[in-house]
Amino acid sequence: MTVSTTTPPRSLDDPGVGEQYLRLVGDGDEYGAVEIVTALLDNGVPPARVMLDLIARTQSRVGELWAANDWSIAREHAATAISERALGAVAARSSVRPTRGRITVACVDGEWHALPVRILGEMLRLDGWRVDFLGASVPGPHLVTHLHQTGPDAVALSCMLATRLPRAHAAITACRSVGVPVIAGGPGFGPEGRWAQRLGADAWAANAEIAVHRLARDWPPPIDDPYQAAFLGDDEYTHLVRHRGDLVSTALTRLTQAYPPMGRYNQRQHDATVEDLGHVVDFLAAALYVGDEQVFTDFVEWTAAVLEARSVPPVALQIGLKLMRDQLRDYPAAIAIIDAGVAALRR
């Protein structure tokens, strides 16, 4: 049984509400999606539950459908835009006068997944915060300028991909250096936020609900030396970053010789391979930066699943890792991390 557009849902427990909303965003029906969230609000469902249990949960499902190659990137982007429209409809119905303080909410430089952090911003507004939502990919210097202009009590910083960790580190250090504590969130900071602490964040939250509770209870924390964790990365990390283009182009040339099916690739497949090799270097660099091979092994396992869904056999990724390893024979830490990635593939 599914919810009909002529029978508005009364509760999130109504059969088929989630699937109906997913179908609507997948079909590009923003009017239907907004009608569902509006009906739920009309029937007394708290705005926070609509945001977390319907919009956020559906967005996670959208990402899974893309990874499984069931949805195209275009369809995923369109669905995200409709969920942003639905979130706006919820926000318009749930205005709360600020009573707590002021907080800046932003994605780190290079991070474009803005919907999760926008949901956080709306949750904080419901809890009485005055929120400055800066959106996706905020360059560090511009973020600090904003802090000087507004003087917030906190910064909530989102990082969805571990490749953004060096930029997240720079932003965290810059915020704390001007006296503004940082609460970090997003899977880019690792399991249980392990890399958020490594980068000097004052706190970490696994999701928007936990972030709201933490900010309400024990904030602000005392700020110790903001530069205590300001210097990470070493010669190997620097080499990877500086020679990223050469590493990718050399691996691509050798992959064409080592993996004959590449000779039949069309332009789209060729471009995707270049992008994948770039991701290998970027995640390897991030693993070196925080000194944790799990950054890389998690990426390898996820990439293998994504490629398999697109009929690319795991051996192609294994060969690509080997070709990257061959170029880094003088860098033992990088080799150890790549070897851990290959072992993860074999498992």
TrEMBL record:
Boundaries of every B12-binding domain copy: 100-226
GO CC, alphabetical: cytosol
Gene Ontology biological process terms, A to Z: homocysteine metabolic process; tetrahydrofolate metabolic process
Any one GO MF annotation of this record: cobalamin binding
Domain of life: Bacteria
Keywords: Bile pigment, Chromophore, Cobalt, Metal-binding
Stored InterPro entries: Cbl-bd_cap (IPR003759), Cobalamin-bd (IPR006158), Cobalamin-bd_sf (IPR036724), Globin-like_sf (IPR009050), Met_Synthase/Corrinoid (IPR050554), Meth_synthase_dom (IPR036594), Phycobilisome_asu/bsu_sf (IPR038719)
Family affiliation: Belongs to the phycobiliprotein family.
PANTHER family membership: METHIONINE SYNTHASE (PTHR45833:SF1)
Name of the molecule in the record: Cobalamin-binding protein
